[in-house]
Amino acid sequence: MTEFALDHVMMRVGDLEESLDWYQTHLDYEEKGRWEADTFTNVYLGPEDQADDAAVLELTYNHDTSEYDFGDAWGHIAVRVEDVEEAYAELMDEGVEDYRPPEENPGYAFVKDPDGHEVEIVERDHGARWSLDHTMIRVEDADEALGFWTRKFGYEHTGRWEADTFANYFMKPEGSSEEAMAIELTYNYDGREYDLGDAWGHVAVRADDLEAAWDDLMTREAVDYRDPESCDYQYAFTRDQDGHEIEVVNVDDTEMS
């Protein structure tokens, strides 16, 4: 698999069973793996037929917390369908709340999960239905953000959309497949600052060799936030220029049962 390809995106939820029911019922997700700890539970979800290099969704449930602050630095996840209008109509028939229909946004639409996380529905001719297409985060300086993902992780542009008041930049590692998830960097031109909140957790990237990858990131002057040793050599964390957390995981450790 491509080095530093996006492996998963983590969001925190207040009621695990309600969230699992929502994603399994409406997006046809199946449980890919689970990690039970004393104080929290992580569950990994995705479509049954998704590609090997596709990313999964990680729902984190903290046993002592049911409410989170969303902030505004975290944007949304986006999932793929062949026909946005048809998919949105299906969700409405299933009782999902009407949030931003395709009539307002030709080519895409939005719904919200039980916690209020925004889920964009995008029209794609590749990838499993409902598979993760991209994760959007907001950044305060587009040049710094683009430089971070290019220099630290070897990402390149796969698309951009520049409007009157904002710009979206889509980034993936060189050589990534269409099915791989992208990171969408949203930059608003008005110079606003953002609050990270705590409902949004992190994105995770894959590494063939965690320690070697971490050494490369340190050489490229990435933030030494949680090094492999402090995480029992199972994973590590750095941060981007805006404080968004990025987990680095061993490829072998991403195979879930």
Automatic annotation (TrEMBL):
SUPFAM superfamilies for this protein: Glyoxalase/Bleomycin resistance protein/Dihydroxybiphenyl dioxygenase (SSF54593)
PROSITE patterns cross-referenced by the UniProt entry? VOC
Q: Spell out where the chain crosses the membrane.
A: none
**Boundaries of each VOC domain copy?**
5-124, 131-251
Tell me a GO biological process for this protein: methylglyoxal catabolic process to D-lactate via S-lactoyl-glutathione
Recorded GO MF terms: lactoylglutathione lyase activity
Alphabetical list of InterPro entries matching this protein: Glyas_Bleomycin-R_OHBP_Dase, Glyas_Fos-R_dOase_dom, VOC_core
**One CC-aspect GO term:** cytoplasm
The record ties this protein, via Pfam families, to: Glyoxalase
Q: What is this protein called?
A: Glyoxalase
Q: Which organism is it from?
A: Halocalculus aciditolerans
